[in-house]
Amino acid sequence: MTESHVPRPDVARESAFAESGQDRIPILLVEDDAGDVLMTQEAFEHHRIPNPLHVVGDGAEALRFLRREGEHATAARPGMILLDLNLPKVNGREVLATIKTDEDLSTIPVVVLTTSAAEEDVERSYKLHANAFVTKPVDLTRFMDVIRQIDEFFVTVARLPVS
């Protein structure tokens, strides 16, 4: 009886990165809810997502991070942004509009990841040039799966611009 080789998820993921030719892109999570931040971090750990995850808690800090201002002067440019809409200081819609109208930032894919399922939020996000709109599932298992699917598509399937 021969032993079949089943690749471990982390090994399969590593080879997917090698095949895609993309490095581990930094991901910026813009989220003010500590529970959602924790669930996202747990999803990254559970699915062995090797991308560095940077977290900021409001829209103003997100813009400082992206512009590499103040304490974020040495921050890596994110290869993707996970953006909540309902943020303090500067809301997610304003952050999205700023990113997509800034020549230096406009090529960064932005996935709106929010609790809203309102059609007006979906439509407005796409009009502001969001790359995807995802309503956060309330179930932890489903939420973790959604994070994995977003990462798999934008990091291993889609080709991102080299910035």
Question: What features would you describe in this structure?
Answer:
By secondary structure, the chain is an alpha/beta fold. It has one domain (23-155): Response regulator (Rossmann fold), CATH 3.40.50. The protein has helices at 9-20, 34-46, 59-67, 92-101, 119-127, 140-157; strands at residues 27-30, 53-56, 80-83, 110-114, 132-135. The longest helix is centred in the last third of the chain and has 18 residues, at 140-157. It starts with 8 loop residues before the first helix and ends in a 6-residue tail after the last helix. 29% of the residues are buried.
Largest sheet: 5 strands, parallel
**Which spans of ≥5 residues are poorly predicted at pLDDT below 50?**
1-22
Rg computed from alpha carbons, rounded to a whole number of angstroms: 16 Å
Query: Percent of residues in helical segments?
Result: 40-55%
Order of helices and strands: HEHEHEHEHEH
Our count of helices gives 6
Strand order of the largest sheet: 2-1-3-4-5
CATH architecture field: 3-Layer(aba) Sandwich
Helix/sheet category: alpha/beta
Domain module count: 1
What fraction of residues sit in β-strands?
Answer: 5-15%
Overall body shape: globular
> What would CATH call the homologous superfamily?
Response regulator
Per CATH, what is the topology?
A: Rossmann fold
Number of strands: 5
Ends apart, CA distance between termini: 50 Å
- Mean of residue pLDDT? 85
